[in-house]
Write a structure and sequence with these properties.
With 181 residues, this protein is mainly beta. The protein has two helices and 14 strands, in the order ββββββββββββααββ.
C-alpha cells in the first residue's frame, strides 16, 4: 500500500479506521492522489468504497489504496478533485486531525441504493443520516456548491434557474443567479 508521507491510517472511536494528518496540511494542498490502479464500474459491480462520478459510473478503490480510509464528515476538510484525481484540502488541517470529505458531494442517491447510513461525524451541522445529494435541502446543497464534483453540479437545480458550470482547478467555478441564493 502506497501512503503519502503527510498522512497515516489510524483507528477512530466510532468509524473504524480513518486517515489522519501526520504533518500540517495547507488549504488547497494535494493530500492524496487516487491510485492509478482504479477501476471504472457500473453501480452493480462497484464496492461500498467506490465514489460515484456519473449516473452509473463509479471509481472503485484498489483494496490496497489509502483513500478508502477517508471517512465522511458533514464539515469536511477535503474534497475530491477529478482534474488531478486527488483529494485536496479545503481548509488548513492540523497534525492529528482526521482527513474527511462530504460523501454527498459525489453520491447522488445513497438511499435509493439502500446504502444510506447514520452519520457519526458529530459536527455542529451534522445531517444525522447520509442519504445522498438528492435528499439535501436547497440551503444544504448551496453550502456544498464549491466542493461538488461535476456530476453532482450537473444534477443541481436551484429554483427554476440553471447554474453555469465553468471547469477550473482545483475547484469548479460556479455562477448562480441571485434568485437562487
Amino acid at each position: 500500500m502506497s501512503i503519502s508521507s503527510s498522512v497515516k491510517i489510524s483507528r477512530t472511536q466510532e468509524k473504524g479506521k480513518g486517515l489522519f494528518a501526520k504533518t500540517p496540511i495547507r488549504k488547497n494542498q494535494q493530500i492524496l492522489k487516487i491510485s492509478r490502479n482504479l477501476s471504472l464500474r457500473p453501480h452493480i459491480e462497484s464496492s461500498l468504497n467506490s465514489i460515484q462520478i456519473d449516473d452509473d459510473t463509479y471509481i472503485d478503490v484498489d483494496k490496497q489504496d489509502t483513500w478508502q480510509y477517508i471517512n465522511h464528515s458533514c464539515s469536511p476538510n477535503s474534497m475530491l478533485d477529478l482534474d488531478s484525481l486527488s483529494f485536496v484540502a479545503i481548509s488548513n488541517i492540523s497534525v492529528g486531525e482526521e482527513i474527511t470529505f462530504h460523501y454527498c458531494t459525489t453520491e447522488f442517491d445513497l438511499a435509493a441504493k439502500n446504502e444510506d447510513f447514520l452519520c457519526k461525524c458529530n459536527s455542529t451541522n451534522c445531517l444525522k443520516r447520509i442519504k445522498g445529494f438528492n435528499h439535501l435541502t436547497k440551503s444544504q446543497k448551496q453550502s456544498l456548491i464549491q466542493i461538488l464534483i461535476p456530476y453532482t453540479l450537473r444534477k443541481l437545480k436551484l429554483g427554476s434557474n440553471k447554474i453555469e458550470i465553468l471547469p477550473g482547478k482545483p475547484k469548479y467555478d460556479v455562477r448562480i443567479s441571485k434568485n437562487n441564493v
